[in-house]
Amino acid sequence: EPEVTQTPSHQVTQMGQEVILRCVPISNHLYFYWYRQILGQKVEFLVSFYNNEISEKSEIFDDQFSVERPDGSNFTLKIRSTKLEDSAMYFCASNPRSGNTIYFGEGSWLTVV
Amino acid sequence: SQQGEEDPQALSIQEGENATMNCSYKTSINNLQWYRQNSGRGLVHLILIRSNEREKHSGRLRVTLDTSKKSSSLLITASRAADTASYFCATDGLNRDDKIIFGKGTRLHILP
Question: I need a surface site. Which of A18, A44, B105, B109 has the fewest CB within 10 A?
Answer without folding.
Answer: A18
